Amino acid sequence: MRVGSNMCSTLTGTLLMWLLVSNSSLVSALNVVLPGGTGPLGQALATRLGDQHDVTMLCRNAFLAKAPSRVSGDFGWVGERYLRRNPHVKLRDWDAGDLLDIVGCDWLGWQDDALAKADVVVHLVGGYTEQRLMACERVVRESLAFNTNALQVTVSPTDEALVALSPGMVTLKKQRLQTCEDMVKSNCLNSECMRLDAFQIERACDKLQKVVESLAAEA
Questions:
Q1: Angle at 75 between CA 70 and CA 78, to 5 degrees
Q2: 25-57 in b/e burial notation, b at 16+ Cβ within 10 A?
Q3: What is the DSSP string of 9-33?
Q4: What is the DSSP string of 42-108?
Q5: pLDDT tens string 4-16
């Protein structure tokens, strides 16, 4: 029996629709950039996003960060084994906002390589010193120049977690966290500020993953 042209068109349309639905992850795949992503939360989140998203961790020294054994924890470390298990994750040197303290060998052009293509930028730069402010300002300033549409997500610990993580000068550290949040909210078109329990990594990942997946669903 010969199949008529109308039936062929119907079958073709149905097949295309099925392919689009069954491969929706290809349509909604996002580029996620994690400044400071080599820490515990960044590694856990990047692993979670591996099913359908590409992740770039901005670190101060990618050579040391991907070394088989930890050489130094000062500049971040994920290890060669982690990267083999997570082929969707790549490392990229950047200056972290402090041009006087550059330790990576290939930090030039990180804006074009990572930031310009980002759909989501999750601020995970640790510490509560002036370095946090410089890193946040650097990401915001370069985002305004290279990519104004990316969703900027600042991640900070709750007040209780902050006291437990870094006792002493708590008031000043809270001010720095607030300054970073205000900087992002006042300068970026799309932003979200999250206060998470730093001791509940899986729960924090759940909340961050929902933010990413929600954006992916809209893409």
A1: 45
A2: eeebbbbbbbbbbbbebbbbbbbbbeebbbbbb
A3: HHHHHHHHHHHHHHTHHHHH--EEE
A4: HHHHHHHGGGT-EEEEEES-HHHHT-SS-S-STT----HHHHHH-TTEEEEE--TT-TTS---S--T
A5: 444 334 433 433 3
* Beta strands per DSSP E along 129-203: 151-157, 190-196
> Would the pLDDT of 81 be above 60?
yes
DSSP state of 115: G
For the segment 173-184, what is each residue's pLDDT rounded down to a tens digit? Answer: 999 999 999 999
Domains and CATH numbers, the chain: 26-218 (3.40.50.720)
Which two three-digit tokens encode residue 154? 């600042």
For β-strands 89-93 and 120-123, DSSP reports them as unpaired
The model carries a pTM of 0.84
Residue 26 clears pLDDT 50, i.e. is over it: no
211/213 Cα distance (integer angstroms): 6
Per-residue confidence (pLDDT) for residue 101, from 0 to 100: 65
In this structure, which amino acid lies at residue 148?
T
